[in-house]
Design brief:
By secondary structure, this protein is α+β, with helices and mostly antiparallel strands. It contains 2 helices and 4 strands, in the order αβαβββ. The protein starts with 16 loop residues before the first helix and ends in a 7-residue tail after the last strand.
Length: 128
């Protein structure tokens, strides 16, 4: 049987993809590859303790923020508080809650398109 071997990308709609990509570049340092219109993350470049998770949630979850949002992107960062300050300076709505625990540090914001985004700094060490 054929099987999934990894997450190949996250694709979503935007009213203005170029502007949203530029916003993420300016406020979170994403390097936009013009041939793809997005950012390439290579698995070997993940920080210690980082990993990619594929996880369906119940349809009535409030974890994604607005009830109409059917997905949430989790971005790995090196400094949750610093990244939240940067996106706030860029006009994003920062969600006033943080989580620090065995899985690392988390913070959330709503981007200019209205997408709730989770920022994650993994705990140091091996993710396995």
């Amino acid at each position: 049987m054929a099987k999934v071997t990894g997450l190949g990308g996250v694709f979503f709609k935007s009213k203005d993809p170029a502007a949203l990509a530029a916003w993420y570049g300016e406020h979170l340092g994403l390097v936009i590859d013009p041939s793809f219109g997005g950012t390439i993350f290579k698995p070997g470049e993940l920080p210690d303790g980082g990993y990619t998770l594929w996880s369906p949630f119940k349809s009535d979850t409030s974890y994604f923020g607005d009830a109409s949002q059917s997905f949430m992107i989790n971005l790995i960062v090196d400094d949750v508080e610093g990244a939240l300050a940067q996106v706030k300076a860029g006009g994003a709505e920062v969600i006033n809650e943080r989580e620090n625990g065995e899985f690392g540090d988390f913070g959330w914001f709503v981007d200019p398109d209205g997408n709730r985004v989770e920022l994650w700094k993994p705990p140091a060490g091996d993710a396995s």
